[in-house]
């Protein structure tokens, strides 16, 4: 059973998402929060598999709540998915750097919403290739922050290749095709890279690839 925490200051939004989730046999909404502080407290109490967190909330915004959850070892199993509206792209990378596994726009189709919850619960990044490319397009138009790439020396050549391809927006199947390996092996390379680089998930790995210089705009 996938345990979900809903955090949004708009009751109508929460009730709409809950109505969808309650229809699924494999998903259970364990708590609802109306602000970031309540979200943080309820995450500690219920230890959900997935926390759907609105970016803009009173008391504490979703990004700060996500940052605190990511920093708490007891909440390592909580996969945070940020809820956002169109026109809020400026918050997306802040959310990913804070520790979010990905993000959803609030007008997502019901079937895509449910799929996203299940993907996040499995510990996979909620960044479809098309979305990843959109984020990359926005991110690489700005000078990346300086960050030492020494940690990349811990990776094998194949792990570096898999990370670079993921950072360019390729799915596991596409990475497998490009590297002539199985999708399971591609996933293993990425999981090992995440462990070595202390990346919480694939989304963090993508950002690290750009910030470390492994992938740059000219070699996309």
Automatic annotation (TrEMBL):
Pfam families assigned to the protein according to its UniProt record, in alphabetical order: GerE, Response_reg
Coiled coil: none
CDD domains noted in UniProt: LuxR_C_like, REC_NarL-like
GO biological process, one term: phosphorelay signal transduction system
Record-linked SUPFAM superfamilies: C-terminal effector domain of the bipartite response regulators, CheY-like
Keywords: DNA-binding, Phosphoprotein, Transcription, Transcription regulation
Positions of modified residues (4-aspartylphosphate): 54
PROSITE patterns assigned: HTH_LUXR_2, RESPONSE_REGULATORY
Domain HTH luxR-type: 148-213
Gene Ontology molecular function: DNA binding
Domain of life according to the entry: Bacteria
Response regulatory domain sequence ranges: 3-121
PANTHER family hit by this protein: TRANSCRIPTIONAL REGULATORY PROTEIN NARL-RELATED, TWO-COMPONENT RESPONSE REGULATOR
Protein name, as recorded: DNA-binding response regulator
Annotated source species: Streptomyces fungicidicus
